[in-house]
Write a structure and sequence with these properties.
Helix 9 (about 260-285) packs across helix 10 and helix 14 (about 435-450) packs parallel to helix 16 (about 500-525). This protein has about 575 residues and is α+β, with helices and mostly antiparallel strands. The chain contains 20 helices and 15 strands. A hairpin with a 5-residue loop joins strand 14 and strand 15 (about 360-365). Helices cover about 50% and strands about 10% of the residues. It has four domains: about 45-50 and about 145-255, DNA Topoisomerase I, domain 2, CATH 2.170.11; about 65-140, Orthogonal Bundle (Arc Repressor Mutant, subunit A); about 260-405, Topoisomerase I, Chain A, domain 3 (Alpha-Beta Complex); about 415-575, Topoisomerase I, Chain A, domain 4, CATH 1.10.132. Bound molecules: 2-acetamido-2-deoxy-beta-D-glucopyranose (5 copies). One 2-acetamido-2-deoxy-beta-D-glucopyranose binds near residues 27, 206, 237 and 238. GO terms for molecular function: DNA binding; DNA topoisomerase type I (single strand cut, ATP-independent) activity. Pfam families: Topo_C_assoc, Topoisom_I, Topoisom_I_N. Belongs to the type IB topoisomerase family.
């Protein structure tokens, strides 16, 4: 403001009055977070890196329509190249994709082009496609020097745009590049597949920064849509994408101190584990054969953490005195080995008190090498001796850090819980089922995860009573349905006015729906008797998986997340698209 008053340009006045107008508008994000107060006092950044402008194709790359050469105008050519780049992909054979693409492509054509090009099946994109393939081949063949140059240029851009100053800290910005235009893909048979994902121009972009900072400059001859100064949010830049109409943000890198984003970081770490988990597994399997006892113990402990989602040590709450253990503090008395049990070989039985004194009991067949190692670890030990005598929590945690930056036992849990939820949701959701049925499927997926994480509970005391109440409601609804059906039949035989007939029919339908909803609720409650869903939901499941699922199937968000949870996951609700993949 002070800075502005010094210059007192028209632009500054405009910005100030804009702020006054905007400050009266409340956005969802802020409403939910308002109690947190302001996120920063000073914020300065350089704005986004826009997608590079379109470079027209060289003259020798031709496009044919109905066998005849056709020179396209730059806007039409650009959109055609998006299609050409995907020509080898199955997408471009899909009817829906072709139809959506063609419709949006026509919007970019000149009227002459529109009159000439009337059938997408007569378009020949082959040369364009070949050209892009050759280009990508050439990129692979680049010399070291050329590669280095590109790397240096990227580094320069990172240094210039990749950081902001928030209060007294220089913070890394997450995704400061704006996605280039292209064709929307979507998952499965998305009805919008093939549509043109438009180029984001400065005029689409809203900038958030301090009044008294150096505002980012739009490219020469353009202007930003708006410049705002809102310290209740941590976004630096936002725009609305045209396919789903959702708002996109540029925000700080997970490494920043901002709260909420810690959560994000946690799940990003779990996603990094996803990428290297195969390597880690290969490594610990190799280590089972090590000559060193401490390495073997470490490797078996890691296997438990990976496969059983055990905690690393006994992270006791302050004042907790119960004899609880984690992986590293397991004692001989906590496991039993069975070379053969029922139909299975090499079974390990675990029985101990874990965090919060929740009993962990599990029988699991393990690999032969693990079993042999365990036998070795148990040799000449008393029941109260440590199973892993050459290991403690700090050694294990240090080892995990070396394997992957930020890796802890908890990351394995987060990874496994999240990936399991995603798989289960894919498996259990059928596209045609009703919303209540979808919610039941969601809760089932969530339950699979809770069981995996050992989030059990005793059945609530009120369980039987509340089940009975629900059953009474179901019985009443059932009677009501029969009665209404009967009336409808009666109306038909008496040739009553068709209007009455219709409203009876509607009533039957409505009651049927209500009945189904109650029945779903009963199933859900019964299945949930001894499982606590809250813990995994709040701590181990990447909320973007759930948000994406909700958006994909048009399920109301409040059926999945209650108010507290929606506040906690506001970042995910704003960020995740329906095609988000963990
Ligand atoms: C498309 O054009 C290429 C030459 O650019 C030609 O070899 C090919 O036969 C054409 N395809 C069709 C279906 O006309
Ligand atoms: C997750 O944990 C379960 C049970 O411990 C295990 O069977 C499964 O292989 C794990 N999944 C992944 C992807 O790690
Ligand atoms: C874990 O073991 C290492 C090496 O034996 C030892 O230096 C360290 O103090 C131990 N840490 C704890 C917390 O017991
Ligand atoms: C939302 O659910 C959590 C359990 O995950 C619970 O602790 C909390 O009280 C609930 N909040 C509201 C507002 O219902
Ligand atoms: C990038 C951006 O616009 N971020 C925030 C700036 O402030 C407004 C409210 O004034 C928020 O809606 C934006 O999310």
């Amino acid at each position: 403001m002070v800075r502005c008053l010094g210059g007192l340009s028209f632009y500054c006045l405009l910005v100030i009055s804009l702020i006054h107008i905007l400050s009266s508008i409340h956005f969802r994000w802020e409403e939910e977070r308002s109690t947190d107060g302001s996120k920063w006092k000073f914020l300065e950044h350089k704005g986004p890196v826009l997608a590079p402008p379109y470079e027209p194709l060289p003259g020798h790359v031709r496009f044919f329509y109905d066998g005849k050469l056709l020179r396209l105008s730059a806007p039409a050519e650009e959109v055609a190249t998006f299609f050409a780049k995907m020509l080898d992909h199955e997408y471009t054979t899909k009817e829906m994709f072709r139809k959506n693409f063609y419709k949006d492509w026509r919007k970019e054509m000149t009227s002459e082009e529109k009159s000439k090009i009337t059938d997408i099946n007569k378009c020949n994109f082959t040369e364009m496609s070949e050209y892009f393939k050759a280009q990508s081949e050439a990129r692979k063949q680049m010399s070291k020097d050329e590669k280095l140059k590109i790397k240096e240029e990227n580094e320069r851009i990172l240094q210039e745009y990749g950081f902001c100053v928030m209060d007294n800290h220089k913070e890394r910005i997450g995704n400061f590049r704006i996605e280039p235009p292209g064709l929307f893909r979507g998952r499965g048979d998305h009805p919008k597949m093939g549509m043109l994902k438009r180029r984001i121009r400065p005029e689409d972009i809203i900038i958030n920064c301090s009044k008294d900072s150096k505002h980012p400059k739009p490219p020469q001859g353009t202007r930003w849509k708006e410049v705002r100064h809102d310290n209740k949010v941590t976004w630096l830049v936002s725009w609305t994408e045209n396919i789903q109409g959702s708002i996109k943000y540029i925000m700080l890198n997970p490494s920043s101190r901002i709260k909420g984003e810690k959560d994000w970081q946690k799940y990003e770490t779990a996603r990094r584990l996803k990428k290297c988990v195969d390597r880690l597994r290969a490594q610990y399997r190799e280590d089972w054969k090590s000559k060193e006892m401490r390495v073997r113990q470490r490797a078996v402990a890691l296997y438990f953490i990976d496969k059983l989602a055990l905690r690393a040590g006994n992270e006791k709450e302050e004042g907790e005195t119960a004899d609880t253990v984690g992986c590293c503090s397991l004692r001989v008395e906590h496991i039993k080995l069975y070379p053969k049990m029922d139909d299975q070989e090499y079974v390990v039985e675990f029985d101990f008190l874990g965090k919060d004194s929740i009993r962990y009991y599990n029988k699991m067949p393990v690999e032969k090498r693990v079993f042999k190692n365990l036998q070795l670890f148990l040799e000449n030990k008393q029941p109260e001796d440590d199973l892993f005598d050459r290991l403690n929590t700090s050694i294990l945690n240090k080892h995990l850090q070396e394997l992957m930056d930020g890796l802890t036992a908890k990351v394995f849990r987060t990874y496994n819980a999240s990936i399991t939820l995603q798989q289960q949701l894919k498996e259990l959701t059928s596209p045609d089922e009703s919303i209540p049925a979808k919610i039941l499927s969601y809760n089932r997926a969530n339950r699979a995860v809770a069981i995996l994480c050992n989030h059990q509970r005793a059945a609530p005391k009120t369980f039987e009573k509340s089940m009975q109440n629900l059953q009474t409601k179901i019985d009443e609804k059932q009677k009501q349905l029969w009665a209404t059906r009967k009336q409808l039949k009666g109306a038909k035989t008496e040739h009553k006015a068709s209007h009455d007939d219709r409203s009876k029919k509607k009533a039957v339908q409505r009651i049927e729906e209500q009945l189904m909803k109650l029945q779903m609720q009963a199933t859900d409650r019964e299945e949930n008797k001894q499982i606590a869903l809250g813990t995994s939901k709040l701590n181990y499941l990447d909320p973007r998986i759930s948000v994406a699922w909700v958006k994909k199937w048009d399920v109301p968000m409040e059926k999945i997340y209650n108010k507290t949870q929606r506040e906690k996951f506001a970042w995910a609700i704003d960020m995740a698209e329906e095609d988000y993949e963990f």
